[in-house]
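Possible regression after last week's pipeline update?

I re-ran a chain I had predicted before the update to compare outputs. Posting the input and the new output here so someone can diff against the archived version. Not blocking, just want to make sure nothing changed silently.
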Amino acid sequence: MRSVLLLLFSAITIASHAQTVLVMDFVKIKNGKQAEALFFYENNWKLYRDIALEKGFITAYRLEKTTADSSASFDLVLITEYADSSMYRKSEDNFRAILSTARPNGPLLLNELQPADFRQNVFVKVTETLYSRTKKRKK
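New output (post-update):
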């Protein structure tokens, strides 16, 4: 019994030290192709993350729109949140399985433009959360 309690306490301690991992993709929309880019993300990127969320592979996702300026040459920030670094390390395999099932013939495209025709991935940042708090919204 004592070893079971020790094991349980150790698991709780490890879980409380798990750090959320965020992956942020910064994307520049090319040649005024906003419609194609937003169609692509809504019908592919979002779909894949909805499935990943249902399967417990990720804990959240967001697509943020911004205005490119002289200090930031990107229009969109795609954010995917993982419960911890272990889930992040599994993400490539997890998403590969999702893509092959959800879109076996490749992504849906607007006007048959390929992603390279309407977007440029400027850079990617991976972060680990040190502190976080979310205020619950009132209904």
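Follow-up from reviewer: compared with the archived run. The helical segments are 2-16, 34-55, 85-89, 91-102, 115-118. Marking as no regression found.
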